Amino acid sequence: MSDPRYAKLAKLLIEYSCELKAGENILLDLVDTPDAMAVELIRATRAVGATPVVEMRHSRVLREVQIGTDERHAKLVRDLELNRIRKMQAYIAIRGANNASENSDVPSEKTRLYSKTLRPALDHRINKTRWCVLRWPTPSMAQSANMSTEAFEKFYFDVCTMDYAKMARAVKPLEKRMIKADKVRLVAPGTDLSFSIKNIGAKPCEGLRNIPDGECFSCPTLKSANGVITFNTPTLYAGTKFEGIRLELKEGRIIKATCQGGTERKLNEILDMDAGARSIGEFSLGFNPFILNPMCDILFDEKIAGSLHFTPGQAYEDPGNGNKSAVHWDMVQIQRPEWGGGEVWFDSEIIRRDGLFVPKDLHGLNPENLR
Fold first, then answer.
1. 168 exposed, middle or buried (CB, 10 Å; 0-12, 13-18, 19+)?
2. pLDDT tens-place string over residues 77-134
3. 133 to each of 92, 208, 248, 276, 349, how far by Cα in Å?
């Protein structure tokens, strides 16, 4: 028997997140995901009169694909992926992983080659389809969250099927404020950073692109970021775990990057991947009331209540500053009191202090009102 939570999640993804309509095509891209979830997604797709195309893959196999890739292979995969995604109106990716560090021994140059070559297919998916990306709960994720497998699964389905329509209503005032704002200042332990988001725009995220969701993002203008920011949560990128990342920025460029734990060389290799990797592609405030602690999974960590993230690399077009890179690395800072506190200012007005929104029109995003 299928878990009824699978059917509930599939219905939300198809009908709410992707707003799939009769006659449309959707690519279901599933990595280390149970067959039963694939079946529920197919059924939910057909129930609205749409056509599913299913790709089921495994992380160990994907590691082998990348570790031996070359230019000829990557271009062939790009052409196939690009041709397929051009036939789709929607896309759902569910990615499980029994080992979060599966790609840790893939050489940086291989990751760079593969990511850069396949970028046109990713760009088309981001800009031309209605898409949603999420993780699948695994014992590895439960371990990262310091939870039992059963408790984590309950947490996962509670978070992923929360009332996103309520969140969508509550985030509108923050979106309006971001659109009007010019100068942003971030203050926290090890952090004093200023930049402009003038004329960039804003994008609320309320369950349409990621599940779980709960953020509103903008993007610094290319040469405006100056100061220093220190991230107090661990982050996983290209199979390597980084802690205590500290970035110094001058005129929008990361001029110095350090971290703890002996991974500083790897950190700078990633930031040197291409010309755009040391510029900033995103700034966002997170506010999912059910996600409180980091678990080294960015689709969860970037939504933590009272958090923000700052992103070296690629900027999405809406909003975006035109920065291009194979890198898009969301780094998270939590500003709730137990994490050291902090402040977010838009121009001369304080927007959030110690993780709670201050202006009255933003109170709907505070945890007690959003749950």
1. middle
2. 999 999 999 999 999 999 998 887 888 899 989 999 999 999 999 999 999 999 999 9
3. 6, 9, 31, 24, 34
Amino acid identity at 158: D
Round to whole Å and give the CA distance between 268 and 278. 9
Measured between alpha carbons, how far is 36 from 180 in angstroms, rounded to an integer? 46
Is residue 87 classed exposed, middle or buried when 0-12, 13-18 and 19+ CB atoms within 10 A define those classes?
A: exposed
DSSP H or E stretch at residue 42:
helix 35-47
Helix or strand or coil: residue 261?
coil
* Domains of the chain, earliest start first: 4-160 (3.40.1830.10), 164-370 (no CATH)
Q: Are 182 and 198 in contact (CB under 8 A)?
A: yes
Overall residue count recorded for the chain in this entry: 371
- DSSP codes of every residue in 299-366: HHHTTBTTEEEEEEB---SSS------S-B--EEEE-SGGGT--EEEETTEEEEETTEE-SGGGGGGS
pLDDT digits over 28-55, tens only?
999 999 999 999 999 999 999 999 999 9
Helices (H) and strands (E) in the chain, counts: 12, 18
